[in-house]
Amino acid sequence: MTSNISYHFAIALLRLARKTGELAKIERDLGKVVEMMAAQRRVMYFLLHPLVPMARKEEFLREVTETRIVPQLIKVLMETKNLSLTGEIYSQFSALAGNERGMVRAEIRVAAPLSAGDQTTLGEALERLTGKRVELEVTADPDLLAGVWVKIGDRVIDNTVKTKLKMVRERLVT
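^ thats the sequence. predicted structure below, dont judge the formating
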């Protein structure tokens, strides 16, 4: 669940990206920083350590990014003690940037892995439904038994056997 704060940071970042024309670069830079913080604990420790001068942290961020905006964002997050929101901000910003490019991300859960052909067919159907290019994020979840669960933005389509059985059970009980 994303916080209201991260959403507002993502909106502000999107406005800056539009203004500077660096949408893709900012998304790539922020993704890179998030990935580094997640993969290497020492990066997070370095950024959070109170004895490391802010100037050294800023220098490090400038070295690993192409834009001026991402290091400034990370500095604000450090100063406001919101660095832990970086991943959420990236997720929100990435979704907003994709929407800006006429693209949406679809979270898909299926009982068994889909073949490349099935993924293509599902992607095309979702593109017709949304009117946008769809980026699929497919996860196999054997607990679903069969069927497909799709989430695009706030919209959820649950066509799984597990849910249908649950609905039948509820009807029989009442």
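Helices lie at 4-20, 23-39, 41-48, 54-64, 69-79, 86-100, 116-130, 161-173.
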